[in-house]
Amino acid sequence: QVQLVESGGGLVQPGGSLRLSCVASGFTFRAYIMSWYRQVPGKERELIASISSIGGGTYYADSVKGRFTISRGNARNMVYLQMNSLKPGDTGVFYCNAGGLQTYWGQGTQVTVSS
Q: Which end of the chain has fewer CB atoms at under 10 Å, N or C?
């Protein structure tokens, strides 16, 4: 059974940091591109960051470049998103995504940036 389980979301003040984690199971993790998406009410999910299957290549949305860092640990089937200098506009539900032969999604974790 395929599972992607996110954790690490919460409420943080502007300028603060959070680290999201996603643990994967049920598929060949190391063969998949892993990504984080964000969704806010009334809008489509937005790609925030991606990392290649062996971790050599990354992509970031312009809005998070220089503030967010995606990483992965293939030995532990984990992908992370370190988020620094958070802004209120970063608020949303963050989803872990696995892209390859098939596409898998986690259930999402809420991130709220507010004073």
A: N
The residue among 47, 43, 54 whose CA lies nearest residue 68 is 47
Q: What's the number of CA atoms in the CB half-sphere (13 Å) around residue 16?
A: 15
Burial of residue 43, with CB atoms counted within 10 A of its CB: 0-12 exposed, 13-18 middle, 19 or more buried: exposed
How far apart are alpha carbons 32 and 10 in whole angstroms?
27
Token reading at 33 = 């591109």
How far is the first Cα of the chain from the last one, in angstroms, to the nearest whole number?
Answer: 40
In this structure, what DSSP letter does residue 107 have? -
Could you tell me which residues come within 8 angstroms of residue 75 by beta carbon, excluding any fewer than 6 positions away?
none
Quick one: tokens of 88? 């209120």
Name the residue type at position 112: T
